[in-house]
Write a structure and sequence with these properties.
This protein is mainly alpha-helical. It has a single domain, classed as Ankyrin repeat-containing domain (Serine Threonine Protein Phosphatase 5, Tetratricopeptide repeat, Alpha Horseshoe). It contains 5 helices and no strands. It is globular. Keywords: ANK repeat, Repeat.
Length: 72
């Protein structure tokens, strides 16, 4: 489903009213594969929400390490 949506979403870095991007939400909900797909489609890991948290700040440690390896 996420792959299908990514074909039609223009801005994977769109923010909600709290400043969260889809990547923030994927990290917060511990959805590693969704987070990887978003990053592959241009999601930025450095964007901060209104609480000044990046997506990686919201991810559990093991997920954070995995995503850091994916972007480096």
């Amino acid at each position: 489903m996420v792959k299908l949506l990514l074909q039609y979403i223009v801005d994977v870095n769109h923010r909600d009213v709290e400043g969260n991007t889809p990547l923030h939400l994927a990290c917060e909900e511990e959805r590693l594969e969704v987070a990887r797909l978003l990053i592959q489609h241009g999601a930025k890991v450095e964007l901060l929400n209104k609480d000044e948290k990046s997506p990686l700040d919201l991810a559990p440690p093991s997920m954070k390490r995995s995503l850091q390896n994916a972007v480096s």
